Amino acid sequence: MVSFSKELKELLRDRKTLFFMIALPLLIFPVIFGIAGFVGKQAIDKAETKILNYGLVGGSYAPEIVEELSQPDKFRKIDMEVNADYRSIISNQIVDFVLVIPENYSAQVLKNGQANLKLYFNDAGLNLVYRRVNAIVNSQAEKFKQVAFESLGLDERQQQALIKPIVLEKINTADKRENWGKKLAGCCLICYLFCVCKGR
């Protein structure tokens, strides 16, 4: 404890160290995070508004998905050869993605089973292809679930229990002061370790 007090006093006397450890990060980090946040938001906005070229296989099985993809401000369908090499046309930037819909795609999920749609795309970089297509697929999946629930005659409470039979609820018993106290103690420990290492 005496050693810690000594190190702390020396640290407080060393204005240069204090500046580089506390003042400089407090000044620079908000600027860095602000720039990073702005650049990141610009990139996400660009990826979300980009018109995606796509190829579609099995579209006749899923007219609802075809309708969702028929938004000229978001998607543009590109005709492909029957036996096209998906990886090649994606790597050559002819299309951004290829969606393959299986024959068993149907709202009658209890009868036909799970439909395994395949989405081919280049996931390198920020393109949001999966997120945008997944939003369309999820909206259809929700409709399919409702059709299945209605056919089973389940009410809303039974539907929720079937979707998630068990829920683990997180209840934090620590008050705010305790939370902040432990976080502050962690920061002090890091400063102390830094001082010890610096002293060596």
Automatic annotation (TrEMBL):
It comes from the Bacteria. InterPro entries: ABC2_TM. The keyword Metal-binding does not apply. Pfam families: ABC2_membrane_3. Keywords: Membrane, Transmembrane, Transmembrane helix. It is found in: Membrane. Its main location: membrane. It is a multi-pass membrane protein. This is ABC transporter permease. It comes from Paraglaciecola aquimarina.
